[in-house]
Amino acid sequence: MSDHLNLQSRSDLERACEVLASMGAPHLPLMRAAASGQIALVNITDPAAQWPEQLLAGFNRPVVVLLGDDLEPSRPSTLPPGWACAPMLRSWAVTAFVHGAAGETMHYRGAVAAALMCGRVAFVETASRCVRPWANFLKPMPVMAFLPRDGVHPVPLRKGGVH
């Protein structure tokens, strides 16, 4: 089993775009940019995953590494020391987004724009309580941090509720 989501074929990427569009998912700009060949997108969701050095070396276009750590309540979000790839992510990226709020399409459009300008973008999706530790860990690079306007992210699951 791979530690990284790596959709290589254009048809795989286009199918993923169709699914995201049908769901109204805010991630759609990232996937569309990858499907069109503007950027490469690597998704890491396992804190034990090693840094995908060889995979990244194979790209000749801007890259967004999306570290998906907002899986609560399935798995609590993890601070940077809990991610095996975090030190390499910090040294690799030119700029970063740390996202601990409800997803908005413009946030992901911003990541595409940053990748086109800077080449290497880290995008960390996490719980709101982890935003500041991640932002501090990634400094001194420029970091755009997103927190909820009110409350916390993800929203705590009510008894008997479904996310």
How would you characterize this protein structure?
The chain has 163 residues and is an alpha/beta fold. It has one domain (4-146). Helices cover 34% and strands 17% of the residues. The chain has six helices and six strands; from the N terminus they run E-H-H-E-H-E-H-E-H-E-H-E. The chain has helices at residues 10-23, 28-35, 53-57, 86-92, 105-118, 131-138; strands at 4-5, 40-44, 63-68, 95-99, 120-125, 143-146. It has a six-stranded mixed beta sheet, sandwiched between helices. Strand 2 (40-44), helix 3 (53-57) and strand 3 (63-68) form a beta-alpha-beta unit. Helix 1 (10-23) packs antiparallel against helix 2 (28-35) and helix 2 (28-35) packs across helix 5. The radius of gyration is 15 Å and the shape is globular.
Short description:
This protein has 163 residues and is α/β, with parallel strands linked by helices. 34% of the residues lie in helices and 17% in strands. It has one domain.
Which features would summarize this protein structure in a list?
17% strand, disordered N terminus, 6 strands, 6 helices, six-stranded mixed sheet, disordered C terminus, 163 residues
Secondary structure blueprint with pairings:
Blueprint: E1 4-5, H1 10-23, H2 28-35, E2 40-44, H3 53-57, E3 63-68, H4 86-92, E4 95-99, H5 105-118, E5 120-125, H6 131-138, E6 143-146
Parallel strand pairs: 2-3, 3-5, 4-5, 4-6
Antiparallel strand pairs: 1-2
What is the first-to-last residue Cα distance? 26 Å
Based on secondary structure, the structural category is: alpha/beta
How do the helices and strands follow one another from N- to C-terminus? Answer: EHHEHEHEHEHE
Give Rg in angstroms.
15 Å
Proportion in β-strands: 15-25%
Number of helices: 6
Lateral strand order in the biggest sheet: 1-2-3-5-4-6
Number of domains: 1
Query: Could you give a short account of the major beta sheet?
Result: 6 strands, mixed
Percentage of residues assigned to helices: 25-40%
Question: What's the shape?
Answer: globular
Q: What is the count of β-strands?
A: 6
Mean pLDDT: 84
* Poorly predicted tracts of residues: 1-5, 157-163
